[in-house]
Amino acid sequence: MTQTENAWGAGPGEGYEALSAPFRPIFAEIAASAAERDLNRGLPHEAIRRLKEAGLGAVRLPVEAGGKGASLPQFFNLLIELSTADSNVTQALRGHFGFTEDILNTRDSERRGIWFGRIGGGEITGNAWSEIGAGAALDRFSTNVAENKEGRLVLNGAKYYTTGSLFADWIDVGASNADGEGISVTVRRHAEGVEVVDDWDGFGQILTASGTTTFRDVVVEPQDIVIDDERFRYSAAFYQLVHLATLSGIGRAITADVAKAVAERRRTYTHAAAARSSEDPQVLQVVGRIRAAAYAAGAITLQAAASLQRAFEAHFVDDADAEEKANAIAELEAAQAQTVVSDLILDASTLLFDALGASATKKPAGLDRHWRNARTLASHNPRIYKQRIIGDFAVNGTPPPYQWRIGASAG
């Protein structure tokens, strides 16, 4: 069935159904075992392999480069569908999608050509940016690139929350060079000196391999180093929109699970409004409220995605002021969307239990994973700061910060 027939609204762009059709059977397979994987901590190696082979990692690339030429609204709608199947998989690929967006924006034709070939050929990239300590918040990474005794450039350091790197072919690393500049470095995932450990111990998104990666004298090629300031300008909004698409997909998964459980439920209460939950108007009201929340979350996410499309297009017009304005608006729209979508899906992930009995809390049912995953995603990039930034813009016209870091206070 199409999105329209499922009452989720028409997919963005006339070509969306054709774009999504090859992926939907894979999404269905991923969904069928999602709860079991979460229960047994089964990492989604096979799911990601299937998606790589199907070309999901290259959907934003031009057709002539092996991609599908998807717009950003189409891309994020596809992520909503993937997240409906398993939000862990979307999160595990988030670093790759952001890296690909950077390649699409680069003015370095040689770099673009190299990576179009790699990404178009099915290779994916993980990320390694977060560090522990004060330096990370000030763009002074402890992880660094320097010359060794043989005159080769080598990478050394440790990174945390390296989501998806365990599944990747390459790792995109935030580092400092000998001059103290912020740089990004790409190295082979299986290069000598690279170690990726699945030690993520959070209660949600447990299958994303968001663990620790260490680099010990990993050889770096000069062409794989980029000054951090040259990264794509709407990156903060883009990475936030991946979270919102993931949350929107969780909302749809909650809708499907609760509707199925209510339809199949035989137990009832003497004081219920009907003999069957599927006929109980109060229970149906709960299910309807959940579905409406999922619908709204998706619509809001796609509205914000349109602002990212405008920022992307502004990058290729020779008008620096217009590009800066488009980037600022994209960040604001993403922030506004974040504050609402997070609330909608967190509420839905709790509300679903009001439509069911206590038996729904049994671990094998896997329904708790929706709240755990949504709560984990909604804890990224705290909403309280985004709300302040939005308010400051509304009252004082203050533009949002272009980029930000997290780390221990220097004080």
Automatic annotation (TrEMBL):
<dbReference type="Pfam" id="PF02771">
    <property type="entry name" value="Acyl-CoA_dh_N"/>
</dbReference>
<keyword id="KW-0547">Nucleotide-binding</keyword>
<dbReference type="GO" id="GO:0005737">
    <property type="term" value="C:cytoplasm"/>
</dbReference>
<keyword id="KW-0560">Oxidoreductase</keyword>
<dbReference type="GO" id="GO:0006552">
    <property type="term" value="P:L-leucine catabolic process"/>
</dbReference>
<feature type="domain" description="Acyl-CoA dehydrogenase C-terminal">
    <location>
        <begin position="244"/>
        <end position="380"/>
    </location>
</feature>
<feature type="domain" description="Acyl-CoA oxidase/dehydrogenase middle">
    <location>
        <begin position="128"/>
        <end position="218"/>
    </location>
</feature>
<dbReference type="Pfam" id="PF08028">
    <property type="entry name" value="Acyl-CoA_dh_2"/>
</dbReference>
<comment type="similarity">
    <text>Belongs to the DszC flavin monooxygenase family.</text>
</comment>
<dbReference type="InterPro" id="IPR013107">
    <property type="entry name" value="Acyl-CoA_DH_C"/>
</dbReference>
<protein>
    <recommendedName>
        <fullName>Dibenzothiophene monooxygenase</fullName>
        <ecNumber>1.14.14.21</ecNumber>
    </recommendedName>
</protein>
<comment type="pathway">
    <text>Sulfur metabolism; dibenzothiophene degradation.</text>
</comment>
<dbReference type="GO" id="GO:0050660">
    <property type="term" value="F:flavin adenine dinucleotide binding"/>
</dbReference>
<dbReference type="GO" id="GO:0008470">
    <property type="term" value="F:3-methylbutanoyl-CoA dehydrogenase activity"/>
</dbReference>
<dbReference type="InterPro" id="IPR009100">
    <property type="entry name" value="AcylCoA_DH/oxidase_NM_dom_sf"/>
</dbReference>
<keyword id="KW-0503">Monooxygenase</keyword>
<keyword id="KW-0288">FMN</keyword>
<dbReference type="InterPro" id="IPR046373">
    <property type="entry name" value="Acyl-CoA_Oxase/DH_mid-dom_sf"/>
</dbReference>
<dbReference type="InterPro" id="IPR006091">
    <property type="entry name" value="Acyl-CoA_Oxase/DH_mid-dom"/>
</dbReference>
<dbReference type="InterPro" id="IPR036250">
    <property type="entry name" value="AcylCo_DH-like_C"/>
</dbReference>
<dbReference type="Pfam" id="PF02770">
    <property type="entry name" value="Acyl-CoA_dh_M"/>
</dbReference>
<feature type="domain" description="Acyl-CoA dehydrogenase/oxidase N-terminal">
    <location>
        <begin position="28"/>
        <end position="100"/>
    </location>
</feature>
<keyword id="KW-0285">Flavoprotein</keyword>
<dbReference type="InterPro" id="IPR013786">
    <property type="entry name" value="AcylCoA_DH/ox_N"/>
</dbReference>
<dbReference type="InterPro" id="IPR037069">
    <property type="entry name" value="AcylCoA_DH/ox_N_sf"/>
</dbReference>
<dbReference type="GO" id="GO:0004497">
    <property type="term" value="F:monooxygenase activity"/>
</dbReference>
